[in-house]
Amino acid sequence: MKIAIEELAGCSGCTISVLDLHEQILSLIQQAEIVYSPVIMDVKEPPEGIDIAFVTGAVRNEENQERLKTIRKRSKKLVALGTCACYGGISGLSMLSNSVDIFRCVYQEVETGKAGNPLPQEVPSFLYRTFAVGDIAKVDYYITGCPPKEKYLQTILPALVKGDTVQLSKKSVCSECDRVMGSVDKWHLRRRHEGIPDREHCLLGQGYLCLGSVTFGRCGAACPHHNIPCQGCNGPSLDILREPCRDIFNMMIRRIADLTGIPQKSLEKEMYDVAHVMYPYTIGSLIMEDKEISHIRDLIKEGSSQ
Ligand code: SF4
Ligand code: SF4
Ligand code: SF4
């Protein structure tokens, strides 16, 4: 069994999460040889005859696209590993700016850059938008998470390598959260820096925008457990994915309206920076953008002057 891990537009955190299997990686490499992974070994190109390719990162530029096509051709199965690969991830937020502004910011305006630096000519060109891996190539399995959590990978990776199927929870983050709903009287929207949430009650009920109910679980509700609202890093829950008439923004507005009795229109007006708050991990996915009621297309148009 030959496995490979390809890196596209991402931070390599998903590959590091494979290394976070700790001792279990020893039994994994007894059953499977890692033949290609630019992050963990010195190898430049994927060989032919790969059994399972794990692809991390989104498709943002021409090089990402070429590398994806190459590894798809050379692999029997392809796994989108991590939320960048599954839904475009945070690279998708780059669509809110045009490429000249992005290059200027990265090469000239950050502390390590210089105002007079020429913009690079030799880096691969951006595609007109970010794509998830499945928007460009056939994907056999999706493993979400930014990055996928260690406990989940410990179950799924050995099974994939053996060719077994495993039954895993398909529920939302809320199903893994042990907070209880408290009083929602005088509910108002709070930003994360406003106050310290109480640790027992649902964060959404306290006014914090917790996306747990619209987010796929399998992280053990890690953030609410640490008193931080879920920001949706595991990608959308199955009901959001399966229903054309459901979308993260609209579903959250409806949930808050049901909870508080505040009219949906008033809630919509209160929401600002919808791209970063509701879609930070999914804005780069055609699946999410094509939803009939998604706001994504308009947000991209507003944000980018390309
Ligand atoms: S999903 Fe998260 S951890 Fe993985 S490559 Fe993207 S940003 Fe990094
Ligand atoms: S909305 Fe957030 S805090 Fe409330 S139950 Fe769901 S995950 Fe927990
Ligand atoms: S709680 Fe939400 S943001 Fe935190 S790890 Fe889980 S899915 Fe990601």
Q: What does this protein look like?
A:
This protein has helices at residues 13-19, 24-31, 62-73, 83-87, 99-109, 133-136, 150-162, 222-225, 238-242, 248-260, 264-270, 274-278, 286-289, 296-303; strands at 2-7, 33-36, 50-56, 59-61, 75-81, 126-131, 141-143. With 306 residues, it is an alpha/beta fold. The chain folds into two domains: 2-162, NADH:ubiquinone oxidoreductase-like, 20kDa subunit (Rossmann fold, 3-Layer(aba) Sandwich); 173-271, no CATH class.
CATH-defined architecture of the largest domain? 3-Layer(aba) Sandwich
Q: Please report the total strand number as a whole number.
A: 7
Q: What is the mean predicted local confidence, pLDDT?
A: 93
Low-confidence stretches: none
Backbone CA Rg: 20 Å
| Broad structural category | alpha/beta
| Approximate strand percentage | 5-15%
By CATH, the topology of the largest domain is Rossmann fold
Number of domains: 2
Number of helices: 14
User: How does the overall form come out from the CA principal axes?
Assistant: globular
Multimeric state: single chain
Ligand names = iron/sulfur cluster
Q: Mind telling me the CATH class of the largest domain? A: Alpha Beta
Helix and strand run:
EHHEEEHEHHEHEHHHHHHHH
If strands are numbered along the chain, what order do they take across the biggest sheet? 2-1-3-5-7
Find the CATH superfamily of the largest domain: NADH:ubiquinone oxidoreductase-like, 20kDa subunit
